[in-house]
Design goal:
about 500 residues; mainly beta; 3 helices; 39 strands; elongated
Length: about 500
């Protein structure tokens, strides 16, 4: 880790990492361009030549910075940050932080733990956190500066690191003790200097752990240190005898094995857990043609598992699509537009499929984005039913100035296509999307939506998963799709999955 010049005693606590076998990687179920760029296979628009590996690396790094950035909240001196690699969210304040799972489903009820710093002491307390601190942020670092003490948080792929920096040797005798109150929904268990946090549902498998306590001084000499847990109080105890300040006290919190809860929904499609993870929590590129009418080809970068970057208080995996404009000198490396739904839904997989075409008849390509696990509510004869059926969003092309434009159309199945049986089956409407040529001769292109897990119900209420595709035909006199044609095979076939972007191989 980086050591700053003013360090005198550094207590570094990196935490909450993940087994790298399931960590975020680029999509493995996409077609690679000649330059090795992960490319969505559904779009019929070619990638510009400037969409090369170097450009993609810059774009990926920029998106990662957006997702891992510290954002101020409406509370004084409080910040939120997410660690995308570990799917963990944090709210940080002068006296500590809370950690919770990133929501991956709109109905998910996750756990939350509170780490409250009580102070540092020998025989008596020599420091307690308070409101008199000064916060500073810089990209992936947050610092709270106190008199003779600094608390740092650094958000990296490996986890969120917490550093206590003691500038000068405190007076008194005895070991240095940093006391932290640990409360919340999980049960804490300390064994062999490893603090594990267990859920009631899986007491044998920790949700995360706090371990690997290491301490060194200003000359990098290791010092003895232990963890102690008494009730809800965690104590980091350090023997600083003979040490030259600063010290570094460095435990780490780890997530042993994180898996998305969409595994069960997609497992029936023949995909393994690592394939699902790499497909949903990386980035991929899609050519969209000229969407801002400047004569240059543009691209969209899909991130369906991205944690909310537009909504200041979103601690959920809502997905996003970033649009990069072509220029006379090549592709921009910062997005011209960032697309998310007005009401983002956790786990919707917004951006799993993308295509573009002129569905408004103005001569400019519009962007069509699938969110196959989005939530819908449909009115039926006996009331309303709802579920994660999926939606498709249409965003306008053109030269509008808004950096986060609003979708002007939302496509979803209606009461003619869903009922109490089929809505509970996660039809995956929007798993694939395609903008076709003009099918109804009205001067506008039309949209086809793949729905590979669609359930057909016959007259005697026996349901069969057949899959379906829905053709949305544009209206000549308005930007609507009032005519919908449903296509389905006569037998079990999972129609709509063969050309699924991201997950076809």
């Amino acid at each position: 880790m980086k050591l700053w010049k003013f360090y005198t005693v550094l207590i570094a606590i990196p935490f909450l990492t993940i087994d790298q076998t399931t960590a975020q990687q680029p999509y493995s179920r996409v077609q690679l361009s000649p330059d090795g760029v992960p490319e969505l296979t559904g779009s019929h628009h070619p990638l510009p030549a400037a969409a090369n590996a170097n450009w993609f690396a810059q774009v990926s790094d920029h998106i990662q910075q957006l997702e891992n950035k510290f954002y101020p909240t409406d509370q004084h001196k409080q910040f939120r940050v997410t660690n995308s690699s570990n799917r963990l969210a944090f709210e940080i304040f002068p006296k500590g932080y809370t950690v919770q799972q990133v929501k991956e489903h709109y109905q998910e009820v996750g756990w939350k733990m509170h780490f409250t710093i009580l102070g540092a002491s020998r025989k008596s307390t020599f420091w307690t956190p308070g409101s008199y601190c000064t916060p500073h942020t810089d990209k992936d670092m947050l610092r709270y500066s106190y008199n003779n003490m600094e608390v740092q948080y650094t958000n990296k792929e490996a986890g969120l690191r917490q550093n206590f920096i003691i500038q000068q040797r405190p007076g008194g005798k005895g070991k240095i003790k940093i006391r932290i109150s640990v409360t919340g929904d999980l049960e804490a268990s300390l064994q062999n200097n490893r603090l594990q946090f267990l859920t009631k549902d899986s007491p044998q498998k920790p949700a995360f752990s706090y371990e690997d306590l290491k301490v060194w001084d200003n000359k990098y000499r290791p010092l003895p240190a232990t963890m102690q847990l008494k009730g809800d109080i965690l104590t980091l105890e350090v023997d600083d005898n003979g040490a030259e300040y600063p010290l570094t006290i460095d435990p780490i919190n780890k997530v042993a094995d994180w898996k998305t809860n969409t595994n069960g929904l997609l497992a029936g499609l023949g995909l393994t857990g690592p394939q699902i993870l790499s497909s949903l929590y990386g980035y991929a590129v899609c050519g969209v043609g000229d969407v801002n009418n400047d004569g240059y080809g543009d691209v969209a970068v899909s991130a369906p598992g991205l944690i909310g970057v537009l909504n200041g208080n979103t601690l959920a995996g809502v997905g996003a699509v970033f649009v990069y404009y072509g220029t006379p000198t090549g592709l921009a490396t910062t997005p011209g537009k960032t697309l998310q739904p007005n009401t983002a839904v956790a786990g919707a997989l917004f951006g799993l499929s993308i295509d573009a075409g002129d569905v408004t008849g103005d001569g400019i390509n519009d962007i069509v984005v699938g969110a196959p696990l989005d939530h819908i509510e449909v009115s039926v004869l006996l009331g309303k039913i709802d579920g994660t059926v999926g939606k498709v969003y249409v965003f306008p092309g053109g030269t509008q100035t808004a950096s986060n434009p609003t979708n002007f159309l939302t496509l979803q199945m209606n009461s003619n296509h869903v009922n109490g049986v089929s809505i509970s089956a996660n039809a995956l409407f929007g798993f694939s999307v395609a903008v076709t040529e003009d099918l109804n001769n009205d001067g506008k292109q039309d949209i086809i939506v793949g729905t590979p897990a669609y359930v057909k119900t016959d007259l005697i209420l026996l349901s069969t998963t057949t899959g379906a595709a829905f053709v949305y035909l544009t209206d000549k006199n308005s930007n609507n799709f009032s005519s919908i044609v449903q296509l389905e095979p006569p037998t079990f076939n999972l129609l709509g999955i063969l050309n699924v972007p991201l997950l076809s191989g």
